[in-house]
Design goal:
Blueprint: E1 7-8, E2 11-12, H1 18-29, E3 33-35, H2 37-45, H3 50-62, E4 68-71, E5 79-91, E6 94-102, E7 108-113
Parallel strand pairs: 3-7
Antiparallel strand pairs: 1-2, 4-5, 5-6, 6-7
Helix pairs in contact: 1-3
């Protein structure tokens, strides 16, 4: 998984559209979430279950917090069509980077890890 980017050329990335966000929420509601490699290791490290990560993403969406499109690391200036990203609060005092990969079915894939950038460079919530 590539590092989080909060801007393209100094401008904030575009937010995900309502349909993309609805698909993520639906997958979380219906337990149609699969963990990517980084999330698999980190749920163990954070001592949480998959449900806790799903709930954190669902809460993020229900609170109207921001979900952004993800830039293509191989094609500057372009966005990946199926990848979204957000700065999600896992629990009080613990914000993490979450990547949501949409699939043609109802399933989504979540990658999650500690922030790798300074607080100033993180995606806004």
């Amino acid at each position: 998984m590539t590092q989080c980017q909060s801007s393209q050329g100094g401008k904030l990335l575009p937010e995900a559209d309502a349909g993309q966000i609805a698909k993520v929420k639906q997958a979380c509601d219906w337990d149609k979430v699969r963990l990517g490699a980084s999330a698999q290791g980190n749920v163990i490290y954070w001592r949480i279950g998959v449900e806790t990560l799903r709930q954190a993403v669902r809460d993020h969406i229900e609170k109207g917090r921001k979900v952004f499109r993800k830039p293509d690391p191989d094609n500057p200036g372009k966005l990946l069509s199926l990848n979204l990203q957000a700065n999600v609060t896992l629990f009080e005092g613990k914000d993490i980077y979450v990547e949501m990969i949409l699939t043609p079915s109802v399933f989504i894939i979540l990658n999650a890890h500690e922030h790798t950038s300074s607080a100033r460079e993180r995606l806004p919530q």
